Amino acid sequence: MSRVINISEAVSIGIHSLAVIAGSDGIINGILVSEITGFSRNHTSKILQILVKHKLLKSGRGPKGGFLLNVPASEIRLIDVYNLIEGEFPTIHKCMHARPECPFKECVFGGIAGKLTEEFRTYLYEKTIGDIILKKN
Fold it and tell me: What pTM does this model have?
């Protein structure tokens, strides 16, 4: 099934992992992060290393190693994670096909794709990792 809004697994792993790490009581290892989020260990590990490289996380090695936030959760916007992993959020065009001219008087989709994309971008700009709350068992 096609999606109106598509967010890559890599971005989803980044956001979910940061939220898990932010909600932990201390240092947390990548294996536990992947178990909590349900994403593969290998892909989670790659994304965590990207987040370390870009200084959102700090990491420690060894049996007592793991990850901690390097930036307060309230300062990490979801759009920052998106842009870090995917590049700049796509430009919103009036036409979802970015055509300068359309043979129709009005968009056959009523411009809803652009409206939804703008609403999604606004959400990503306004929401931070600190706003995400884990459910406790």
Answer: 0.87
